[in-house]
Task: inverse folding
């Protein structure tokens, strides 16, 4: 069972998952330009921003409660730039004081504890990073964001690395993949998906899906 909803924190999604007893199949988790703060069965860790799909194998009966930080809001809460967490899972004790982590880990309501702890450390959203994520999600040229804000490409790269873990071009690729998969799951033909999501052609779509998801689009669906 999996469910998600909007967190009280801006640009943050709360999600909860329970793996039924007797079920422990692998789950392919696609990169999404976010990082997650996750409580799992009494332990708390950070899942950094991914560049390729991760294979999760939750034990039967395991429970998760988590916050997914979008628009580059996670690093301000965690206290480290996202580029230090790329493709990694890090125990929260490595980033926060042990007593603070223990309070979350042992809470009767893990979701409330996560939200309260994140709220105490909330730094707000950087309008530039919100604009960058929005442009990438919409398939718009991300370079135009830097031009509007008077930043050089190098400055935008540095700020994107800190907020998302990678530069604007990689963020654009990842969010384009998310857009393509959503269209395909809605029943769009693959040729239409490639055009609507902004790929050069269907072969380009196929290469990108295999590179980042690890399997062809049909198998992914």
Result:
């Amino acid at each position: 069972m999996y469910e998600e909803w909007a967190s009280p924190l801006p640009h943050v999604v709360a999600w909860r998952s329970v793996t039924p007893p007797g079920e422990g199949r692998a789950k392919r988790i696609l990169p999404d330009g976010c990082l997650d703060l996750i409580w799992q069965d009494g332990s708390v860790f950070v899942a950094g921003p991914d560049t390729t799909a991760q294979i999760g194998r939750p034990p039967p009966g395991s429970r998760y409660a988590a916050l997914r930080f979008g628009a580059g809001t996670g690093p301000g809460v965690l206290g480290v730039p996202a580029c230090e967490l790329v493709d990694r899972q890090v125990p929260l004790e490595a980033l926060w004081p042990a007593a603070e982590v223990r309070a979350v880990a042992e809470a009767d309501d893990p979701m409330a504890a996560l939200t309260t702890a994140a709220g105490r450390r909330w730094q707000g959203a950087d309008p530039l990073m919100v604009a960058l994520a929005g442009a990438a999600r919409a398939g718009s040229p991300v370079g135009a964001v830097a031009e509007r804000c008077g930043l050089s490409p190098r400055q935008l790269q540095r700020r994107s690395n800190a907020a998302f873990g990678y530069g604007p071009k990689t963020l654009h690729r990842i969010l384009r993949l998310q857009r393509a998969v959503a269209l395909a799951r809605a029943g769009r033909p693959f040729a239409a998906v490639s055009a609507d999501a902004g790929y050069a052609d269907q072969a380009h779509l196929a290469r990108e899906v295999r590179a980042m998801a690890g399997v062809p689009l049909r198998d992914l669906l």
User: Anything to note?
Assistant: The radius of gyration is 18 Å.
